Amino acid sequence: MANSIKFDRDQVIDKAQRLFWQRGFNGTSMRDLLQTVNLRPGSLYASFGDKETLYHDALLRYAAQGQQFLAQCQADTESPIAALQQFVRLQVLHAEQAPSQVCMLVKTVAELSAEGSKLALLAKNLLAEMELAFRQLLQQAQAQGVHLSAPPERLSKVLQAQIIGLKTYAQTQPDQTVLAEMVEDVLATLLQK
User: What pLDDT is stored for residue 5 in this prediction?
Assistant: First the structure.
């Protein structure tokens, strides 16, 4: 019987995701990756193929976590608008545990788009899926009689851009009071005055 090494695939992807999110694709060496996930090169290649495939899996995991978090905000609140508000507040103001304030998908697009990378295309598609989730919540709110400041299709794009901007800005302005005020300004733009 061949000598096989047992490991938790999900745990490896989670560890790799945190490292990739912190350092980016090009900033993560194979040596650092192997050390972080605690695998030998043969085990990594046999299980994941290569660094690009592991990064692909990490992006999918990151996006799924974002969708799950949005679904949890829906479950925890009484309305679609309250869910979006909670999501934005928590994403921007409580990201101290994250390897980076900047969204991993956005970092991937910024780092790899010029290279024509399939990973950048995947990240763009995953960002579009999150935008769609925002639009669906805004459409639900509108169907419930909430007066939005713009059509859900446009507001979902604005909201995504605002979240990306706020998370990036948080790296330059760590003052939580200032960030909280900015988040509330963004949330106020969702509803018609």
Answer: 52
Confidence of residue 6 (pLDDT cuts 50, 70, 90): low
What is the rounded CA–CA span in Å between residue 155 and residue 149?
Answer: 8
Cβ-in-10-Å burial (0-12, 13-18, 19+) of 117 comes to middle
- pTM of this prediction? 0.90
Domain residue extents for the chain: 9-188
Q: How many residues does the chain have?
A: 193
DSSP string, 107-166: HHHHHHGGGT-HHHHHHHHHHHHHHHHHHHHHHHHHHTT--BSS-HHHHHHHHHHHHHHH
Q: Which fold has domain 9-188?
A: Tetracycline Repressor; domain 2 (1.10.357)
Residue 134: pLDDT over 60: yes
